[in-house]
């Protein structure tokens, strides 16, 4: 079992008005009933993602409905059992990327590079209000890079690697100027029309 961080004990597990002799046991019990696995919503998102794959690189072995998705291959969680990292690079994944991955509210890093994923890059992922690093490079994603709705509240994305795919259309420079956190975009080796620098560093380069 993972060590329980101190802050968790303070914020959630404490029960006042507990007799001293019972408090140690009560503490253990209430810790055990705290998030010990990912949420059903999170599992659901992953199982929908899995359902969209025609080749899943053997993920079904550990991605079993009814089990804790924090223990599934390629998935890491915080000590509070919130999914924070999805690392599924080089797994021969084929199929499309479910927009429901954008519904993982604590997801910080998503790496799907070096697969054979096709279809669009879902708006839900690029406009996620949690993802800071998104790497879908070296796939077969196509279509336009989505415009970001101007209503997107906080856009924490810092690193976007969409290089070596088959994206087309005009790079949506106008809305992407709003990506204030963006440090690096690598959009090279696609089929965008118009001039796009090999690597765009939004803080220093302006879009045409
Ligand atoms: C996405 O997550 C929210 C809760 O965080 C939920 O209400 C909503 O139904 C989810 N969307 C889908 C398509 O499951
Ligand atoms: C994603 O994974 C690939 C393969 O391991 C790695 O080369 C790449 O650096 C990772 N991307 C990020 C943004 O860390
Ligand atoms: C994608 O780009 C990011 C930022 O430059 C980089 O850290 C990452 O390693 C790249 N991914 C791959 C597979 O090269
Ligand atoms: C962008 O990604 C491509 C591979 O898709 C790589 O060859 C290139 O070096 C990357 N550019 C930078 C500046 O990291
Ligand atoms: C460009 O993308 C294709 C398809 O993903 C890949 O096979 C090729 O190695 C990439 N070229 C470079 C220079 O990264």
Question: Could you characterize what this model shows?
Answer:
There is one protein chain. This protein has 208 residues and is an alpha/beta fold. It has helices at 6-13, 20-33, 40-51, 123-126, 173-176, and strands at residues 53-55, 75-77, 83-87, 94-96, 109-111, 116-119, 133-135, 140-143, 159-161, 166-170, 184-186, 191-193, 199-200. It contains five helices and 13 strands. The protein has a single domain (40-207), classed as Leucine-rich repeat, LRR (right-handed beta-alpha superhelix), CATH 3.80.10. The strands form two sheets. It has a seven-stranded mixed sheet, with no helix packed on it. It has a six-stranded mixed sheet with strand order 1-4-6-8-10-12. The chain binds 2-acetamido-2-deoxy-beta-D-glucopyranose (NAG) (5 copies). One 2-acetamido-2-deoxy-beta-D-glucopyranose (NAG) binds at residues 137, 163-164, 186, 188-189, 198-199. It comes from Setaria viridis. Pfam families: LRR_1 (PF00560), LRRNT_2 (PF08263). InterPro entries: DNA_repair-toleration (IPR053211), Leu-rich_rpt (IPR001611), LRR_dom_sf (IPR032675), LRR_N_plant-typ (IPR013210).
């Amino acid at each position: 079992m993972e060590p329980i961080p101190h802050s968790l004990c303070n914020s959630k597990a404490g029960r006042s008005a507990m007799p001293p002799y019972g408090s140690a046991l009560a503490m253990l019990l209430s810790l055990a009933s705290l998030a010990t696995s990912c949420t059903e919503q999170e599992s659901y998102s992953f199982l929908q993602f899995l359902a969209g794959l025609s080749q899943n690189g053997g993920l079904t072995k550990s991605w079993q409905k009814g089990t804790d998705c924090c223990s599934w291959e390629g998935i890491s969680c915080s000590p509070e059992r919130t999914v924070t990292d999805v690392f599924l690079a080089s797994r021969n994944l084929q199929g499309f990327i479910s927009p429901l991955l954008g519904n993982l509210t604590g997801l910080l890093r998503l790496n799907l590079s070096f697969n054979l994923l096709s279809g669009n890059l879902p708006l839900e992922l690029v406009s996620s209000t949690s993802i800071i690093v998104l790497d879908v490079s070296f796939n077969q994603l196509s279509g336009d890079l989505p415009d970001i709705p101007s209503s997107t509240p906080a856009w924490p994305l810092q690193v976007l690697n969409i290089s070596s795919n088959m994206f087309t259309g005009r790079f949506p420079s106008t809305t992407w100027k709003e990506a204030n956190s963006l440090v690096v975009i690598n959009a090279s080796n696609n089929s965008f029309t118009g001039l796009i620098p090999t690597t765009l560093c939004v803080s220093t380069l302006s879009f045409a």
